[in-house]
Amino acid sequence: MPANNSDLIKIPVVEIESRLVQVLINHGFSYAKAKTCTEVFVGNSLDGIYSHGVNRFAKFIGYVKDGHIHPNHDAICQHSIGGIEQWDGQSGPGPLNAISSTDRAMELAAKNGIGCVTLANTNHWMRGGTYGWRAARKGFVFIGWSNTIANMPAWGAVDSRLGNNPLVIAVPYQNEAIVLDMAMSQYSYGALEVAQLKNEKLSVPGGYDEHGKLSYDPVAIKKSWRALPIGYWKGAGLSLLLDILATILSGGLSVSEISKDKIESKLSQVFIAIDIRKLGNFKSIASAIDQIINDYQQSVPEKKGKSIRYPGENILKIRAENLEQGIPVYKSTWSEIQKL
Amino acid sequence: MPANNSDLIKIPVVEIESRLVQVLINHGFSYAKAKTCTEVFVGNSLDGIYSHGVNRFAKFIGYVKDGHIHPNHDAICQHSIGGIEQWDGQSGPGPLNAISSTDRAMELAAKNGIGCVTLANTNHWMRGGTYGWRAARKGFVFIGWSNTIANMPAWGAVDSRLGNNPLVIAVPYQNEAIVLDMAMSQYSYGALEVAQLKNEKLSVPGGYDEHGKLSYDPVAIKKSWRALPIGYWKGAGLSLLLDILATILSGGLSVSEISKDKIESKLSQVFIAIDIRKLGNFKSIASAIDQIINDYQQSVPEKKGKSIRYPGENILKIRAENLEQGIPVYKSTWSEIQKL
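ok -> structure tokens follow
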């Protein structure tokens, strides 16, 4: 949730949608592309991922204005080897490239069981979970990740040379999905900002202060620019490997190459889909997942009465609430969008 | 390294090898299977992963004696859908099933670009990195994981219902490999034991004490049985998703089903290989990885003079040292193996 509730207004979905579509068209998007892009931004806010939804739209338009995002460039297939295709995103809009890559990975999976699309020279996909939900709702397992601009130090280092390279894993579940969408840093800089605005400490250490001590203080961490990788050396290692894979599989730019420009564009991404409907029917997949989740939810909570949630579980409730009540947007953000 | 140096002896590789092969033959392994299994145990110790090498051999033989591991059962293919094959490990030796699955994933990748073998009803693969090194040395990207018996609580829970489900990602690098091999818990119980024996505290919090506080004390964590997932809620979520995928893709048992028996057997695993030699030559893969690692190693270290290492980097040195000087084994372990 955004930081300060008094600065928030709730705007009906259709009102936001029509405004975003119009702004995108004004900035050179075709009607169809404007619609799809809007669905991603609005969908992310609907799901409660406000940092990568409507709140980020003005920044996205800024990238269009500055020529980093080409509204009507489509990704093109550069090389195909059966189950893998290597695409060039041609600096098109990140969400559109990611959608077409996800859909293509599913097509390849429908043919081969498993399909992999790699994508070079794309832009920020906003929220990675979008593509996990998309694939899982259509009955596919999804594994995907993106590299980013450098924003996290290697383990034992003070300067940022790793990306927080979000990783998404999704599976179909009860007509919806279980979707893990996690960056390799314990907190995003967006989350640190929210905590700072609320004048709150973090619930677990999120990075280092200027004296090199682990800190719960978002302000201190933002000063040092030393975000903490999840699991210390482990998340740093995972970030490095995800970058290597995205780079070599797509033939695109690495975190260090992206970071030379100080602008987060020309990213490299990987989209893997698996068509589980084609698997051998040794046992029902749906009931296997039910069994795992049922056992998981029977965990004894640390705090009495607290429920143990699976990744993405909360989103269905938030989505229903926002659909009914409107999407919470900062007043300043909304007035900025009105002027675009 | 094992805990107490005075209890260690260094034994030449060939001496260990011939003993392990003999013991395996005595317990019903064919000569060829005994040789391959021995290579895995000795290789893991050579690489410095002592907890999953020779030190674990007696426990492995115990599983054979108790009928959990069937020495000469081979995995069989149950279902094939192009790029994916589902195999049943038939409770054969975990390392042998994992090797054949890795090799088969590479064959599928050589045909389709990407190949995926899933494996139900297998046994502990010992060290997951073994299979990453194997595939990467042959020029393949490798992504693989295993589920385990429940040994880690969900986030916000006190009882263990998640596995620490190790994840392995490997890429070829300079005739060797970069290999990430990480469990979802910050420390394995083996690592906690080593710290306890050395009377040392952990370098970062490894779990909770009996009062529910994060702790650096291996003894306190072993009392509470509350190991910490890497990145708190993130590692717990990743563990859950890896278990769901291993279970549904293989048609095998989940962490909770495995845990009913209190014996870690009938595991589910996934092996994905990608044949990078078949990718489009937009740029040299080897020089792309060099570029990433070079930049990474130029990180400014927190402690002056300390080098920033990539996952697996240290192993080459340890391997060379152990090959020359012999493998460090506990005296008690070696005498136990002599009696098997």
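Chain A has twelve helices and 13 strands.
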